[in-house]
Amino acid sequence: MNERTIRVLEYEKIKNKLKKQATSQLGKELIEKLEPINDFNEVQQRLMETSEAVSLVIQKGNIPIGPIYDLKRYLKIAEIGSYLYPKQLLEVGDTLRTARVLKNFIKSEDSDKFSPLQSLISNISTYKNIESRIEEAIIGEDEISDNASPTLRNIRRQIENKNTAIRNKLNSIINSSRTQKFLQDAIITIRQDRFVVPVKAENKKDVPGLVHDQSASGATLFIEPMAIVEMNNELKELKLKEKAEIERILREISGQIGEVTGNIKINQEILANIDFIFAKAKLSLSMKGIEPKLNNRGYIRIKKGRHPLIDPNEVVPTDLWIGDKFDTLLITGPNTGGKTVTLKTVGLMVLMTQSGLHVPADYGTEISIFNQVYADIGDEQSIEQSLSTFSSHMTNIVEILKNVTNSDLVILDELGSGTDPTEGAALAMSILTHLYNKGVKTIATTHYSELKQFALSNEGIENACVEFDVETLSPTYRLLIGIPGKSNALEISRRLGLSEDIINKSKEFITNEDIEFEKIISTIESNRKTAEQERDEAIRLRLEVQRLKENYEKKYEKLQQQKDREIRKAKEEARKILKEAKREADEIVKELRNISKDVGKERNKRIEELRKKMKSNMEDLHEPVFFDEDMSFSEPPKNLNIGDSVKVLNLNQEGTVLTKPNQNGDLNVQVGIMKINVNISNLRLINEGKESSKKTNIGSIMKTKTQNIKKEIDLRGQTLEEASINLDKYLDDAYLAKLESVTIIHGKGTGALRKGIKDFLRRHAHVKAFREGIYGEGGSGVTIVELK
């Protein structure tokens, strides 16, 4: 890809954002090498892997990418038969673990599913045995575990015993009244890996032994008493054995790694790729990117595209298309209106797509694969810079025109600027005509009004402008394709306070053709705004109609489902009734056959009994549900309060409201000694007289409960059944008294009562939450309950 294009479109900044999403140095190295490619199939493959990674992150959450180290040097050491140090082995183990965890994370349950990531992880080799061996043997960067081998454990136990024996011996020496007077301090220290004691220099001969060191002043000698020389020698031998065993263990583990270095190298490449792919996914999610549709015919359609390097809360989305009905797009408008940002947005999205990255736009965006992208974009220019600027731009444009083909995209900012306006406009028209005739897709910006007319009069070249709000004297940054930019100089000057005389005088210097052209543009602009308003209103109405239609369809579907349920329920009830009736009839027939042998009054008596039984059964089958007819046709109560007296229609019983209805209309009602859960539609308020009477009684009960209820209940010494009954009544009273929390004292004991009470609380209607008591509240011997 063209180096200047990469630089002016700030592609490196996108790579830097991508690097921040990678977790390993290997992944960042791949990102550093990333550049746009023009192979259609390869680009499609890269986009697919990014999309798959995005989907995995959305479905499964954070990616378990652990440490991924560069193991190339370590693997070479293992291959030649040498051994790795503990820190190096830990890095190998961590990398192997990361490979295994990622493979399990990405693995699909659908084994036939083919995708880029599935293809990658299928080549990962896992070595749980090596992981476990490293984890078992090494506990730090410089520390080997005692469990690394039985031999090492035994040697270290001997070392510990020998250390203890030496210290005991030295303690007996330094604590001896005969020796203490010869010592500088009654302490044990170590010099050159040997245990020694600090002896006064003048008493050297009084403590026989080997001198290993002396103090800086020379007043103290560090002597190894002869009594422990042999023991120190034995300790030295044990430490040499320990070192040899550690080296053997490291060689053993390194040898296991050396046998599979080829597969671990493949793992390294795959892990770097996976880190790179998930970095692309995280970048996509951070900028709300989408996978663009690809084509290779030079067609670009960007829907609500946002420049990826501008704050998403500030950037204004851009709609742009080219390559279908026109190959050249000419954008006009004032400075700081967003023309250059639009060019960079298009160019950067093409480069990102050809790099396998998602683009910050809406679904429906389509990007073509180009062989090359050429861009000539500079900062806003001034008259003083005109000569050098013009020369610089023309040098770049000459190079572009030499190499460009019909498979390329050309982006030109302020074409023809920096020189005489007439010559600059003529040159710009000539360059655009040349590019158009070669079939090159071109997007250019300009200030020249001549180019607006040029675009209008030439097929295949389309005008566009960045919208400017004259009322606020500021750009809206919206791109309008099909409309040339209108010069707002006179209108802006008028609003800024320039006198009408000067403005009118200026119009005399403008040709009639220019004035007429500006009027046409104004008319087009006015018609466009009207059309957009009407379109927005039409869309709003269509969405409203669609919403109403969806609501209607949902309600209709719900009614149909309810109807089907009721029909099925009725059929099931009818089937049960018929089955029961048949059974009863069969029994009666059987009875009649049995009594046919009887005679006289006895037979008549039995027949009469059976007739009454059949009549009773028939009455049971057709037994109506009795309820208060006036109440059944009245409306369900709208505002129920705790303590209200109600009638439960399906039971034909009176009750008292215990809880307020929830969002589904369900509540608890006390009917006699029972508490039942009913829906508000099945309740009716009892008449005012009874209601007021009931309310008075309930009010007095609640007042009594509030005054007498305690904030704790002691259930110690009770069986679980007794405790459950007493606790249920207490919670009802506490709820009516509107206590927010209560304490249940159950003691510690065997824990059976405490467990049973907690099971009971989980099912209780009045309990919002509960916890075990803390220090100062009674600890595990009490449970604190929060009531609804």
From TrEMBL:
Keywords, alphabetical: ATP-binding, Coiled coil, DNA-binding, Endonuclease, Hydrolase, Nuclease, Nucleotide-binding, RNA-binding, rRNA-binding
E.C. code: 3.1.-.-, 3.6.4.-
Coiled coil regions, renumbered to chain: 521-598
Keyword Nuclease belongs to the record: yes
Domain Smr: 713-788
GO BP terms, alphabetized: mismatch repair; negative regulation of DNA recombination; rescue of stalled ribosome
Entry-linked SMART domains: MUTSac, MUTSd, SMR
Domain of life of the source: Bacteria
UniProt xrefs under InterPro entries: DNA_mismatch_repair_MutS_C, DNA_mismatch_repair_MutS_core, DNA_mismatch_repair_MutS_sf, MSSS, MutS, MutS2, P-loop_NTPase, Smr_dom
Annotated TM spans: none
Pfam family for this entry, one: Smr
UniProt GO molecular function: ATP binding; ATP hydrolysis activity; ATP-dependent DNA damage sensor activity; endonuclease activity; mismatched DNA binding; ribosomal large subunit binding; rRNA binding
Residues that bind ATP: G333, P334, N335, T336, G337, G338, K339, T340
Matches recorded under PANTHER family: OS10G0509000 PROTEIN (PTHR48466:SF2), OS10G0509000 PROTEIN-RELATED (PTHR48466)
NCBIfam families: mutS2 (TIGR01069)
Record's function text: Acts as a ribosome collision sensor, splitting the ribosome into its 2 subunits. Detects stalled/collided 70S ribosomes which it binds and splits by an ATP-hydrolysis driven conformational change. Acts upstream of the ribosome quality control system (RQC), a ribosome-associated complex that mediates the extraction of incompletely synthesized nascent chains from stalled ribosomes and their subsequent degradation. Probably generates substrates for RQC.
Quaternary structure (record): Homodimer. Binds to stalled ribosomes, contacting rRNA.
Family: Belongs to the DNA mismatch repair MutS family. MutS2 subfamily.
Protein name in the entry: Endonuclease MutS2
Organism annotation: Paramaledivibacter caminithermalis (strain DSM 15212 / CIP 107654 / DViRD3) (Clostridium caminithermale)
Encoding gene per record: mutS2
